[in-house]
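PROTOCOL LOG
Step 1. Enter all chains and additional molecules of the complex.
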Amino acid sequence: MLTALVKRLGQTVLVLFGISVLVFLVFFATPGADPSARIAGRNASQETLAAVRHQYGFDRPLPVQYVKLMGRLFITCDLTSFVDHGEEVVPEVMRAAPVTISLVAGAAVIWIVVSIAMGTIATAMRGTFVDRGLMMLGLVGISMPVFWLGEVTNLITQSRYHDTWMFSWVPGLGYVPLSDDPIGWFRHLIIPWCVLAVLFIGIYGRVLRADLVAAYGEDFMRTARAKGLTETRVLLRHGLRTSLITFVSLFGLDFAQLVGGGALLTEVVFGLQGVGRLTYQGLINLDLPLIMATVMYSAIFVVLANAVVDLVYLLLDPRVRDGR
Amino acid sequence: DQTPADAPPLIAPGGQTLGSPHRGGTLRLTADAGAGTADPQVNYNSEMITLGVVVYDGLTAFAKRPGEASNIPVADLAEALPEPQDGGLTYVFHLRPGIRFSSGREVGVRDVVASFQRIFKVNSPTAGGFYGGIVGADACLKDGPNCTLAGGVVGNEADRTITFHLTHPDAEFFDKLSFPHAYVLPADTPAHDLGNNAPPGTGPYRIVSYDPNHGMTVERNPYFKVWAPEAQPDGYADHIVYSYGLTDEAEVTATENGNFDYMYDNVPLDRYGELGDRFPDQVHINDIFGMFYLIMNVNLPPFNNIKVRQAVNYAVNRRAMQTFYGGPAAGSVLCQNIPSGLSGYEPYCPYTKGADFAHPATEWKAPDLARAKQLVAESGTKGMHVTLVVPNRAVEIAMGTTLQNMLRSLGYDADVKAIAFAIQFTYIQNTNNKVQISLSDWYADYAEPSDFLTALYGCENFHPGSDSSVNISGYCSKPVQALFDQAALVSVTDKKAGAALWAKADRMMLQDAPAAPLIKMKKIDLVSKRLGNFYNTNLYHMLFSQVWVQ
Amino acid sequence: MDAEYRGGDPLLEVRDLTITLPAGRGKTVRIIENISFALGAREIMGMVGESGSGKSMTALAIMGLIDAPGASITGSARFRGRELIGLGRREMRALRGAEIAMIFQDPMTALTPVYTIGWQIDEQLRAHKRLSRAGARARTVELLGDMGVPDPERAADRYPHQLSGGLRQRAMIAMALSCNPSLLIADEPTTALDVTVQAQILDLLRRLRSDFGSSILLITHDMGVVAETCDRTMVLYAGNVAERGPTGALFTRPGHPYTAGLLDSIPPLHGERPKRLPSILGAPPNPAQRPDGCPFLPRCSHGHDTCETRPALVTVGEQDVACVLPLEGRPLPPRIQPAFAPTVFPA
Amino acid sequence: MPSAVIAAGVLVLLVAASLAAPLYASRVAHTEPFVSDVAATVTLHGEEIPVMQPNNNRLHLGLTPIGPTWHADADLLGADSQGRDVAARLLYGGRNSLLISSCAAILCIVMAAVVGICAGFFGGIVDMLLSRLMDIMWAIPVYLFAISLSIVTVSQGLQLGPFVIRSDNLILPIAIIALVYVPYAARPIRGRVMSLRQAEFVLAARCLGVSRTRILMRDILPNVSTTLIVLAPLVMALALLAESALSFLSIGVQAPAASWGTIIEDGQGLIYTRPMVAIAPGLAIVVTVLALNILGDGLRDALDVKETSRRRT
Amino acid sequence: MSATAPLIETKHLSKHYQVGSALRGKQTLRAVDDVSLAVRPGETLGLVGESGCGKSTLGRCLLRLTDITDGAIEFEGRDITRARETTLRPMRPRMQMVFQDSYASLNPRRRVGDLIAEPLRVHRGPNGRRTRSEISDRLHELTNLVGLPASALERYPHEFSGGQRQRINIARALALSPRLVVADEPVSALDVSIQAQIVNLFMDLQDRLGLTYVFIAHDLSVVRQIATRVAVMYLGSVVELGDADTVLHSPAHPYTAALISAVPEPVVGLASRRTLLTGDVPSPISPPPGCRFHTRCPIAQPRCRTDVPALRDLGDGRQAACHFPLN
Ligand SMILES: Nc1ncnc2c1ncn2[C@@H]1O[C@H](COP(=O)(O)OP(=O)(O)OP(=O)(O)O)[C@@H](O)[C@H]1O
Ligand SMILES: Nc1ncnc2c1ncn2[C@@H]1O[C@H](COP(=O)(O)OP(=O)(O)OP(=O)(O)O)[C@@H](O)[C@H]1O
Ligand SMILES: [Mg+2]
Ligand SMILES: [Mg+2]
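Step 2. Run joint prediction.
Step 3. Record the structure below.
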């Protein structure tokens, strides 16, 4: 038990180390990425440039810079952005997290509910045109580039039909904290939720249907039906419950990836200042501290999610619990 | 309570002034992101500077008047603009009494002195460029933390004077003092980049909070009283709130929908038609001192050949560039290095169809491909590989594509490479990156021709191997440099004679063609329906203190 | 009523049951062809046949559990005189689990892995009876105890995988019996179990009749299991009834060459060890390529011209046999029963 | 599997249409889709109209490209902000997009197969290292890589031994996209191999004295192929979506050349005035991805038959 | 090598697996525990026991298809306990295996001809690498031998019935003319009517080729039919070993007796004579102390709970691991 935990922790640290070193090296291997001149400002004199270089330690050997950077990121937590000089990236990421979590959690609720409905309805009506239609719809959802869908949605709800009764309720883009204004929070997020959820509805609906149909062939489903249970109960309590195991593991990883900044494009398109947009900012400004902070945050989340998924697996599947 | 009506409301060119003067309310601004540190002596971004002008003051300031009038420095914290002494080497300023920082403390002489020292302590970007001419600045540049500017900036508490000693006469000294990096901050302001914590200032507003990823809130400075309406008038709105996070497209939509009063970022081109059709009254178009130019590296083939550079100047279709920037209403064709509106500007265009140096035209008409091809043929560089570097933004990519077509038609094997906007400008500066030809824009810090000539083509601004070398073309010509120096010197005492010299330098340099000027830009501002008294200054766009919201 | 059933009113009477499934490209295949049989109250009837002969399909058809798209079921299956084929979903559901219960071959896969066995038994109880949670659980524990599960209370809280095969099968049986069904269909209930455990389960099944009064339709491919457990036996071959009759008669005087061959090819555990095992040549036909005549013809050592048409079931002695031999006066010779096993443990 | 057949037909049609792009541009549309010409005109109903239409409002601000005319010879789908025919660019873009995504998918599947098979077959430390490597790759921001590469390649190109890869070299997006999705594809392959490694026929092969490499090649690989074939269209679909982002970052397809991704990016700036510029390539991507997915499903079903024909006992 | 020298012999062979989840901690599963056996050339050793008692594991150990935890194995007098894969490879032609699951042991993606030819391709023949025609001749010989139609070679495994697939497996195992064939439940998955065919085939092949079998089965009657000697396994150990007829007629170990008594026979009226065991086989992860069978043994004595009985010679060529052997 303990050794397993230690081993897992060791591997996690290894992964985080690998990612950070790679990000760091890629950054410094990029010609023109040297942040000194950008920090010093346009047309800075050579003396100023040298002073800035020294002040930020860019004249030190790379390993020293790496260690300092990591120390400030993880130990003192006072790493500041190269672009927004006073901006401490760790609190910034922490401030952005609630936005992302609001976005992702809401979308997750939508995609879970809709995809479960879609998967079960398609399974219950498998072979019919309803089934085929739903699955096709799912595919369309998977095929649409999310930033494109977001832009088109914005075009419709914010501009073209903003004055009509249909979309006049849509507030401007942006984010309102839940604690400030719950209704505003909801109205701001409902469209981003839907746009983000579309892709996952497609994936999860299809995965669930496949699992459920496979479950239909399982003996225990036959047993359940032989018990005289209603079809709905058989499908939901026996089929869905067992199929949910794949569903949940998939969900854990996707959710973590999104919370870790994977919803970048959605956040940018809808002007939500979440972790994804932060990553995006970091990338377009080539702001190493911000990139490093968001990447590490995301990696930690993904690793954490892996662990949580394993745990949930344990809860959901008694077989795994006993290591069989 | 003083009413802002002290400063007469002036009708800005372009859109209409709506509504009646109204004090109060919240001015809502939007930009896609914050713009770096809130330390006014470090930040060099126009987004932050535009806001900073209503928060801070220097000894002098560019007049807060609409249009051309805003190019001129006027006394701000100083009682008056002093006469230069010692042939332009010494200036003595009298500090106005009774002005308070937003922290409540009165501004004293030592605050002024400390602020100038602080420029060097915090490695302000212009420390060398603008303030390197102050006595003692050399030592400060080398050893910032212990900067004293001894003998350079001398304060006298008793008679409230601050005396500046320069190493050489500087015609643009007041411009530089008016520049935001010379704002006066409390003497106890920490000597490091303050990041998100804006220091107290003396303007009508103060920054309450700033988060470069979310927004900024600004409120009235309770200690503010108008002392010189021309330099720092009172504001109308009670609050100014900046929200970050929208894309440019979304900013337009949100402003159209009335969610914001003003968008900082440029309106994307494709929205121009819509603005013209549906919101003409909310659009304001104003000149700015900004240009697009095509920079050729005079040290790399084929552009080390003057004929090739001239050929490019002849061949480039400036009209097409104008179209990509939004057409004649959004920018004007630029044929020379000094744009109109600055001293030294003369209508002059040798590089156009039917003109040459012997018979220059007054304005650009059309490209002269035949002549360009002939020049290329003479240069013997035909068929060489040329890579054009442009920043990866839609407008520049469109321009780049057309320029690539042009280079191809001249007989070059031309590529266009778009690189990340964030590093494009430093990238093309560094000679190590061997950039042959690049497209960039340039904005003036203040309204002087030197900002377009000396800055971009002066020998002292060429630093091989450095990321900070704004003389990107690497051009350094002895006679031209001599003219630059002479023009700068003459201007100290005689602006008019100086202007003539600048014009001469421009013409001489144009012949060497280290770059091809393309267009001069205009700023297209979109404001909300409820924003009134749109008020534009040439250098800092819309003046936030002078617009009102209903 | 078929000749062979001689009891009173049968509990279950199947007549001309035929199951047709689509086989792609618009073709269909008859999995089960005109199967008829009757099962009396408190009777254990065995259904034997090789893999794929249609045993499970028959059972599923009776349970109304065939839901393959395009499946067509014709004929009749009357349970207590009530027609099951074509019965409405709701009525069928009320019968299923309550009146007719079924247990399956592999107790590992036949139980939902994510619920405790107690939960699963409770579920069935509550589906058919108005019982509280606690009431259902009490009954569950009682049932498990009846099935010989040690410490039934704790066993009820365990997951299927935590139990041994034997216990799992007992839980399955407990679940099937939870509503006191009058008919229990057991589809190969012991195939996945070890012989020693199989013996325990078969013993349990036999006791059910006395304790619960259930009739059992026992599906298996093991002739030994049938011999040991069933009152009457039906032998299926390629979707057809080959022979049916009282188990004793069928084993001593098999009427169908297939039955005889099947019995012969089992290596004896006692007595003389044959040099070679008598075996039936070839393999059972694919349902899509079943011969028109006697389905056993390709493998039959007695085959001749008259076998080219499908033989009907004829009553010979105590059995019904689908073979022309008895009618042609050439019945198979009676079978020599192998020697009895010695008792090994001291009494 | 009629739907899969239709999907395959649609794909063939898309490829054919893309291949016919030069024909369309020169013969039908009479346009030069790679030259920006803001002064160009088209003839519509016998009338010469400028492609870039001035805005005749009070401000005279900007020019708006012509919208869809629905005439094949006159900007069928309209023009983009540089006055180029969107329809012709769409067809040319299809060539690049389909080429990049299919090559990336193949490369990715090959790499994923190597990684997945090694990790799954050898297990132990090899598996641990490869799995962690995949984790690292999965968590690295692709765009950071892309931006850096784009800068590296802009001037001197990427020096790989004797080869110099310039930034317009399509190998770059192909390699990047392929790399990015290796972890995605390697995971299921690894799982499949791990279960195959336990398969009785592998044991049987070992028992026959077959060497490990031969087992890998003859027994494992053919059985993984189903997984590979099913994954390929999915990865290709993902690659198609990733390509657009990379093109925007100047990796791969470079202006003035087109890909569906770059056209969407161009169209992004026109979405409020000429939405068709973004919608058309978006639809092309949707249709292609849809067809690929349906084809993938069909392939899986078709290939699965063999596995499932075994009767359940 | 003398005539009576064993072809394969195990001495105190053990195979343990580490099982359990990382979270719950690993446990040791004693799949095979201290087994000593010898198989002489030409004989058939039947290996019986209930599911999970370690029959397959033992079979795999014999052929060194898994690593061995403890003990030793000698094949043809040579110690192969720790032999590497490369050392074993040249010996493989002489020791072969036929698996229970006839489908799973054939690669579904390869043609039957390919599958059977595989060993011929990877091993050299008597005159070096085999030529195409040699291989094809041998293939036809083999299909004849096991009774497959020649057309089978071109088809895929899924096109065959279970019995035919088992013939393919046998043909492949025989391709290199092995001396020893370990058959792991080769007929368990087959229908009775087919089972008899395959059992006959095994016996015919032994007659014709002089093979030595280790025949694993859980069906006692099949083992009796084919085996000359029988080893009965319980929870990883051999509890009784001896002549097939003797062991099955008068078992010495109560477990053997119970096993025999539990077999359902196609004889009507026998059921009442069964001696039923109670309870289930304990887990090999935590086997009971003392005699492993004592938890289910009808004649267990207190001593059985503490003392582990060794496999003892009972005189009549039989060995049993019981403190109180029957008869
Ligand atoms: N859903 C189905 N679609 C098509 N054919 C089916 C289906 N289910 C079963 N079959 C076929 O029907 C025939 C009878 O199957 P059934 O399961 O009843 O056999 P069985 O006698 O129970 O065999 P086993 O002993 O293997 O359980 C077999 O040939 C089988 O392949
Ligand atoms: N690779 C393995 N890892 C862990 N445990 C194993 C492994 N293989 C077998 N076992 C365990 O070893 C024990 C013996 O297994 P083995 O397969 O040898 O039994 P068997 O007698 O062949 O059973 P069956 O009749 O079911 O084939 C079982 O408890 C099994 O779960
Ligand atoms: Mg069955
Ligand atoms: Mg086994």
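Step 4. Note key features.
DSSP finds 14 helices and no strands in chain A.
Residues 9 and 275 of chain A are 25 Å apart (CA to CA).
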